[in-house]
Amino acid sequence: MAADRTIIGLISDTHGLLRPEAAAALRGCSRIIHAGDVGEGVLEQLQRIAPTTAVRGNTDMGLWAAKLRMTEQLEVSGYAFHVVHDLAGFPQIPSGVDVVVHGHSHRWSCSEEDGVWYINPGSAGPRRFGLPITLGLLIIEGPDLHVERIEID
């Protein structure tokens, strides 16, 4: 991997299930961002793959979830990230943010508005609502950013 290429795994709504296919898709990432509804035990598995930043979702309860914050901010390769589970519940985006990663709906979405990327990696946990199982890879190469949608059968 070239020094100026960074791959960030984007995952959400695992609800306690890290599928082997999802773990395999995240191998090689330099960082993982989990947008909530993690479920007990998943963070430890993700941390074995790459350093992981996660936020608390509406179903994350108990002592294990107490360490998770409702929002997180981080910088990776010069890009400022804002992470929140339910974007509707926390619509205020801090200034200077380049990428917003959110979850909750279990639906993949990726759009750019006024220079800010909004990415919902969908749900990589138990299948719900008849929706596909998805996650994403955000690839930064020099000044370029692109997102790959990964669907698991």
Give a brief outline of the structure:
By secondary structure, the chain is mainly beta. The protein is 8% helix and 39% strand.
User: In angstroms, what separates the terminal alpha carbons?
Assistant: 27 Å
Global geometry: globular
H and E string: EHEHEEEEEEEE
Query: What is the tally of beta strands?
Result: 10
Largest sheet: 5 strands, mixed
The amount of helix comes to under 10%
- Order of strands, main sheet, comes to 3-2-1-9-10
What count of structural domains? 1
CATH fold title: Purple Acid Phosphatase, chain A, domain 2
**How would you state the average pLDDT, rounded?**
95
Tally the helices.
2
Question: Which CATH top level class fits?
Answer: Alpha Beta
Question: What characteristics describe this protein?
Answer:
Purple Acid Phosphatase, chain A, domain 2, 39% strand, five-stranded mixed β-sheet, 8% helix, mainly beta
Descriptive account of the structure:
With 153 residues, the protein is mainly beta. It has one domain: Purple Acid Phosphatase, chain A, domain 2. It contains two helices and ten strands; from the N terminus they run E-H-E-H-E-E-E-E-E-E-E-E. Strands 3-2-1-9-10 form a five-stranded mixed sheet. Strands 4-5-6-8-7 form a five-stranded mixed sheet, with no helix packed on it. A hairpin with a 2-residue loop joins strand 4 (71-76) and strand 5 (79-84). The radius of gyration is 14 Å and the shape is globular. The mean pLDDT is 95.
